[in-house]
Write a structure and sequence with these properties.
6 copies of one chain form a homohexamer. With 263 residues, the first copy, chain A, is an alpha/beta fold. Helices cover 39% and strands 11% of the residues of chain A. Chain A has one domain (3-260): Creatininase (Rossmann fold), CATH 3.40.50.10310. Chain A starts with 7 loop residues before the first helix and ends with a helix. Chains A, B, C, D, E, F: Keywords: Hydrolase, Metal-binding, Zinc.
């Protein structure tokens, strides 16, 4: 169920198991990938999970089986997908045109209060579905704060899709294999194929500039000339399809755990 | 130029005259219209204005004429459309399921810092394109604060599309003639036609509960049972087309004034 | 009952129906009118309303009649007039000497906490009696926030006197007909009669610089050389008397509605 | 020069040496003295100092003598008296009806920003003229912060009138000898003479409940039943006249030091 | 009981009467005394009081006598000494190298939240044991706020050791007799004896630059060249021993009052 | 150079290459280890690094050799060790007695302003030496913010000692092998040897409760009964010595990189 497209009466009548809040960023992703990559991928994963959840649910209802592995075994309703947060914590890319950002303080408040408004309606199991590394710390803090608040029953966790794709997780980069693959699968028109090569050549192999476990670089232009980290050419559409499948499956697992958990 | 779909290199190479930041809300719009109405309509107006601007610009470049009335006469570049803000100041609808909101403080900070990040890249002429009445005061405050800040050259104003549609402005309501018309034109599948009648019957004729110029009602459920104000049936797709045309034309006029103004 | 002049024991013994908090501004009002105009007029309206309330109340008590139109029909006690807030949201006049202001954030906090301290004593029906256009948005926000706070029973609304004077409301201006009239009635010594003519000649006809419903001017010196908007000469003392009468009557109506309303 | 009564053109033309900002409180002062005592006395002291300053100034101009002891010796202009702050830090009196307060955070911001708006106009020598003990710490903090701010030339200090009355300072109390005396001199109608005796009898001899230099009582009702500390009967109008004389003379000395000091 | 050295299981099993939170500052103390003087002395006083408390307690338990003057008469447990706050409100010493400080806002929040975490565990009687004059106002504010908070049972007061040493209090200074004496007793190695003379000669006799009860100097370098106020040579180790004895005794008295008081 | 023990004159005369700010936490570390573990270990690592730095420096000065591996090759001065921050972000341990914490907002402000006061004196290269996992995110945010601030030249990074001990890093736990080892080396008296066994038996093997890369547990008592994670018995004093050696060496490397880096 997509919140933006539903009416309030439909939300009231719906059986919402949990809400997914896609959180992205509008920031440089190299010369070949769009600034909106993080919101697009986060939303794609959330939508795919909601669809998977609904299907599993129907099946579970149909045959009453598969209680161990089916998503729907313990849940009867829908995952509600809230509209995405498009601007996040991305000041590290400020050297690259078009990058938008807010301070971590403002970002935390914005996400937290949005979640609290969901909880106001009794939708108090929430997964923050994140598509940007720079948001990670802030979202984890929001999830903790919301969940510890004795004034509400809300329980939230933060999920970052590219950390939940098994062995591929290690190849993340920035505008690299994983994001390019996902885009080629969900928004192929937005990938500038003619610049893939230059994207790779002008990028760097690793995020950051490290010494003894400490990243000395606070901004991305300190270690990548064109904003790219990793080789986007490796990110095929087929890989993208696999990533979406894996990430949405993982998200359903997380959502189920969130629904079933005693806060 | 749609910021989310552009790459940072394209933004750097572009000739951006001004940025449009669509600001919506995710809030009840009656039983017939989607919760995302305000962001959808704000974004539609911004996109239409950007298209109109580009066309006028091209024409002006082609023949060098029409300096008095064409949009492009004084401008040579593009309007950049930033991704929409989906959650705004909407606590007044909290009685209706699915309505999301943040506090005015957080909303102001979020919009202001987003605008400041645009200005960081030299995109310092900004029109906040608003689709929700409840955001009005907060956006006006943000525009003033950003523009008065001596630390930047940013100049911003707030534009609310349904106040710039001539004689129709007086019929705004909520989920009423104007919004329903606009939706029927830009997102017809999202209007629940079968509930238009009940939407009208369960709504009210006027926003608020007034005495001597003071609205006694702080929340919308104090004066409308189903969230509707005004008659959605009056909002035809043809009217929607006219509204979009008028609002985008007005927005271009405002953008031009913003570009040309000494701050 | 004037709070500043009462003792705490008298407040405890009083039967307070509601409190009026006059909110002004210390800001330029042209070369002919004092910087304190907004606080003076707001306080004058509040005092006149309190007097009117007391009289009506007494009459109602005396004869038990007039339940339809008399102020006192539904109320038995007093309106408490708190001391005025002298500094408000007035940065738009910063180009003119002597204008004082605080940020909207600080202003909202100051007014809200003052109101909350009234509510602490059980005086939880409050009308913010405003004399300055620039305070409007902020006071409306405060009234909503205070009223929605589940931790208290407070209910507040914002009333702006020059919006409650019937057909005269449209002539407001700044240091123009309405304010000059009110001053000539309540503080005639403070009107510099010898500068009325130059005030008019050096002023402007309209507040702001508008295009398509958007005010491009964030500061008043962008459209008025001497700070005046409208013709002060039209503001006779007789008009002032009428304005005070109308505004205080309207304020009593609002106060009565506030007292009688289920929050 | 009283800021509220002046026009902006007069302020521009004036030769302002420094500004005085009276800061009071609206809080219980026993059964015999008004809630507005602190603002009234602070404003009276500020007005008396401004008058004394103006007189001294004129004399100094007339004869060119008395450079050592006359106020006007080093100054040529006026003291500007800003409108009073009526609500301060007074939660300690919350047990007594009608007492108003804001949090120290909000109070500091409100006073600081008011002072900064004065400084914006070049009026950057400011004395905060305080009439309430509970404001002391907060005002000292504001004065320090304003003065240390490298973004402005402002220099401010906090002056509390009852600490500048020589040997009388030790008899302050609350609603006691000093305040009652001052009121009997500047606002005799507001002293309830018939309750002076009960005020004394129901009060206490000392502010606070002390052990080893620590006041255990955070609220005044912990040590005084009717809010009074000290014997108001001792506060004659003659004493009030002396206090006003001493305090205003001291304030002129402080203002002169502030004007002459390299920040 | 020293919190840092205890395990959580020991705290759970302990009978904690009250907690002492030493609050210092890292700031210049002249050429002869260390920057950490304030934290060292505050912690020494707190430790001495905890030891005295424990001893008195034991004795009281042993003989069941002395209920009037022994510390242990009304208490059965321990004083818990929390780890010291090393950085306080000390911007006034910013001209001297190595001085650390935070804003008063941040300091108040840091101390308050630390106290609230103690109260979370039911340790809700707290004495803030202060060693720095600049912290005084902020700590008093924190103690009031914590104690007034209806959401907890916490009761806190602020104690400044050098105000609780009887007739010696008047000789405080800065890096002067009292602090030098205390250091010579508790940390003699840290006193640079060879610079005592120059410390005295380059210092000043009095803190601040006063006129009519107002300190014109916001920073200490305005009145002392080397940061010293008072004569450190007068501060013998013997005096230090006496000061520690007096201050810790006073602190026990305060702690007992705090434990026994109805909040 | 230990800041707390130095005088301001010594700091002024010193040649400070960079400052180390130890940041700990006061929180449960199982039944066998003290609440102050994190501050103790962070301070121990900082002190060891400062000593190592000084030694290397001297040697380098002596023979002018070893430019490749000696710490002192590029630096000539001292590492200044600031006093430790004892209370951090530790609400996750609130279920265990004696744990202290402040909110992340307050912690960030406190650390940031402390760092800014160092930078005020020109000590603008700072390493935050962290001993607590819960502080990590907040310190990284502070380091970024301080370093990006155009108003100062400060450059800061966050270093967490147990992440810089090579292959041992993976065994961290909580009150487990690494912390117990370090304590046995630097503060053996504070380890309750008699409870090591029960500490291990009542603890858990892993921090958190994970599903698909998401930790469902926001508080530590959700997955460990006695607060311990990992086996403390494995943490020998010999291992502690090695850890201190490795961590201080790594810290010197980081400090050197910070000193040499163009910000």
């Amino acid at each position: 169920m997509k919140l933006s497209e539903a009416t309030w009466t439909e939300v009231r009548e719906a059986d919402v198991d949990a809400a997914l809040l896609p959180v992205g960023s509008t920031e440089q992703h190299g010369p070949h990938a769009p600034l909106g990559t993080d919101a697009m991928t986060a939303e794609a994963v959330a939508q795919a999970a909601a669809k998977r959840w609904a299907t599993a649910d129907t099946e579970a209802t149909d045959d009453g089986e598969g209680t161990d592995d089916a998503v729907g075994s313990a849940v009867a309703g829908d995952l509600l997908v809230a509209p995405p947060v498009h601007v996040g914590v991305a000041e590290e890319h400020r050297a690259f045109d078009g990058t938008l950002w807010v301070s971590p303080d403002t970002f935390r408040a914005y996400v937290r209060e949005t979640v609290e408004s969901l909880a106001h309606h009794g939708i108090d199991r929430i997964v923050l579905v994140n598509g940007h590394g720079g948001n990670l710390e802030a979202l984890a803090e929001v999830a903790r704060r919301v969940s510890r608040d004795d004034a509400s029953d809300a329980y939230a966790v933060a999920f970052t899709w590219f950390e939940a794709v098994g062995e591929h997780a290690g190849r993340m980069g920035h505008g690299g294999p994983l994001e390019t693959a996902m885009l080629r699968h969900v928004a192929p028109d937005l990938v500038r194929e003619e610049r893939i090569e230059s994207a790779r050549d002008g990028g760097s192999a690793r995020w950051g500039e490290w010494i003894r476990g400490v990243n000395l670089a606070h901004d991305s232009d300190e270690f990548t000339d064109n904003g790219v980290v990793g080789d986007p050419a490796e990110g095929t559409a087929a890989l993208g399809e696999e990533l979406l499948d894996r990430a949405s499956e993982a998200l359903c697992d997380v959502a189920r755990a969130v629904v079933e958990r005693d806060r």
